[in-house]
Amino acid sequence: MDDFGRPGRSQVARLQSSAWAGIFVFGIVMAILGAILPSLFERVGFGAGAAGTLFLTMNFAMLVTTVFFGPLVDRFGFKSLLAVSAALVALAFLLLSRASSYGFILAAAVVLGLGGGGLNGGANALTSDLHEGEKRGAALNVLGIFFGFGALSIPFLIGTLRDLLGVPTILLIATAMSLVPFVIFAVLRFPRAKQAQGFPIKEAARIARSPLLWLCAFILFFQSGNEFTAGGWISTYLQRTHGVGANAAALVLAAYWAAIMLGRLVSSRLVRRLRNETLILGSAVLATAAAVLMALAPSGTSAAAGAVALGLGFAAIYPTTLAIVGGRFAALTGTAFSVAIAVGLVGGMLAPWLAGKIAEGSSLRHGLIIPVVNCAMIVVLAILVGRELRKTKNERNPS
Known about the structure:
The protein has helices at residues 9-43, 48-76, 79-98, 102-130, 134-165, 167-187, 201-208, 211-242, 246-270, 276-296, 300-314, 317-328, 333-361, 364-367, 369-396. The chain has 15 helices and no strands.
């Protein structure tokens, strides 16, 4: 690093690798409850409404961390927050492996959310800070590929090794995986905090009043709701509505996350050729069509196809939206990300909880109408973001 704390090229590579490790574990966090939910139903015995409360609780805990992580990393740096977050996630997985009651699972969900929120916000903000211009959007989409690897890993292990190892042992494997980024964060040297001399409250207030920030934040609101709802309920939906076997349903969930990974790999190239808002709009249109197919599917096969297509549609929306935020508010990336991701997590809390309530009162098929509505809203918001970006560009460069 130079005298001002900016990382050199080799240090950027090491720091980026640490962000990949952290977001890999956050991918596990995002997928784990949905992947183990059928086994929890069998082992502990609770209904769809209580399952929805688990998602709500985990996401609320994640929201708490997210609200505070941005100002903390802008003021004190990334190292401690990321290391503590990874340790909390490892503890949560260990608790889930031993869970014997609903209250125990609920407590684990709280710890999981607290740690997951720090890993998500920290890894994304760190990646945004390490790159500039069009490289930022590409880097955030690549970061999302590692998220997908993590999200895919546990459903894949459950789908292939559940009968051999059992879900508790697979959760212990997840615990060990979570300790890897903890060690990396503990030993790496991170850049000094951007605002080490004091937090600029007036500048933060100006950012918080930006219409562009709030439009992006509400894209994340609907998209987080989509990802938590789909990732949390696909496996249960396939089993209960279409009679798909537990292992096959887990593999479909893994294929959904694999589709997100593939989509982000493609998006990391497309973002160099398309405007960010155009990529978000096209992705949202594809996701809307896929969500309709999954919710209205007459068979398990067509529902599975809808789930995979949904992953492709979802892929670019979250990281590319964050790229817009990171590019426009680079002086206080952490704070801007805190606002946007926190609003997103509210959607992540409400949508799967509402899907569970609808499933309890009617059917899970009706609950999965929620992603259809959310995707349609993202289409509208992407159009408004494009208008706001053009307006800002015209104000800066009047003809």
